[in-house]
Structure formats: structure tokens, C-alpha cells
């Protein structure tokens, strides 16, 4: 692990109490699926997964896990690493992984910065960051995960020519992300028409956060960037 880690995780780690089954799965199955960053990352990340996979995608902050599980079911030959420090959300996703027998998913329940620094260079074929905490107050904007240092991390871990996908319903964070990522030397914004950022990606399952945003009148935006 590099010395980039600066302890930038903010927020709660626990919400509603876990059900007895969730507590049991966290005890019995989470140790099997959790990535152990005390070990060196394998040169080929495909070796992390129980199922044979041809490439690896990352989702940082998967929330309720709707998107992560949907993509893992949809793409059985892709390995998925899901990062979520919020215990209740992790337990929910873990239950789905176990119940569906998904051998192409590994999980990490701590700060995504640690995971990004642990990954080998040019080891990911796609990365998602969907509806991250927007930290809407201006004095808290420094806590937003999208910043120059973390974009350096994404750029190091992504293979050239692959995509980084970002979604948010908060206008100030969309503008923030677009400005920071377009200014970064490693990324190009791929949009050619307005629909490229107004419409979600193919086979998009939606998320509970997106549904809440739509109910409350906020409009989601979907940004796609290509690693140079």
C-alpha cells in the first residue's frame, strides 16, 4: 500500500440493527468474501474470485447494492469488487451475494482509498462511483471523494482505454465532478450529445437513492470518462 492514504473517510458506519441472519452471514461469509489488504494484491486480480472471470470492475460506495448485484448477475464473466463502509448496506449486499451464489463478487468494508492504493497498477477494466455523499455545504466540499488525489488513484488502477462512470442528482456535485475529472490529465469526457449525460447507461437498474431523488424532484446525471 502506498503512502497516499490520508484517512479521508467521513460518515456513519452503522444504521438499523442487523437481522439475525445478516449478523450470521457477517460472521460466517463476510470473512470469506472480504478482501484482506494485509496481503499483497495478486498481479492478476482474476485470481481473487471463486468464479472464472476475464476482467475486474470496481464500484466505490455501492449503497444498497442494487447496481452491484445487477451488474454481477448480468456479467458472470466479470469480477466485481464492491466497496461500502456502511455496515447495514454491506450486510444487505452480502445477503444477496450469498443467496444468489455469486462467485464473481468480492467485498471491502473500509475506506476506498486503502483499496485503491492496494490494487495493482492498470488492473481494473471499469470503475463506478454512483450517488456519492455530496457534502452539500460548501465548507464540507473538501470531503467529497472526487478530488485530484483520488482521481490519481483511479487513474493508476484503471487500464488505458477503460471507463470511469459517475452519477449524482446534486447539481453542485455534478459540476464539481465534471470540472475536476475533465481537468485531470488522465481522463477524457466521452459525451457527444446531451443524452449522453442525461440518460443512464444501458441496462441501468436504478438505485434506491436515484428513486428517492426522482421522488423529490432532483434530476440525475450520468457522466462517463475514458482513461487515456
Automatic annotation (TrEMBL):
Pathway: tRNA modification; N(7)-methylguanine-tRNA biosynthesis. Pfam families: Methyltransf_4. S-adenosyl-L-methionine binds at residues 59, 84, 111, 133. Substrate binds at residues 137, 169, 207-210. Keywords: Methyltransferase, S-adenosyl-L-methionine, Transferase, tRNA processing. Its EC number is 2.1.1.33. It catalyses: guanosine(46) in tRNA + S-adenosyl-L-methionine = N(7)-methylguanosine(46) in tRNA + S-adenosyl-L-homocysteine. Coiled coil: none annotated. One of its GO terms (cellular component) is tRNA methyltransferase complex. GO terms for molecular function: tRNA (guanine(46)-N7)-methyltransferase activity. Belongs to the class I-like SAM-binding methyltransferase superfamily. TrmB family. Catalyzes the formation of N(7)-methylguanine at position 46 (m7G46) in tRNA. This is tRNA (guanine-N(7)-)-methyltransferase. It comes from Pannonibacter tanglangensis.
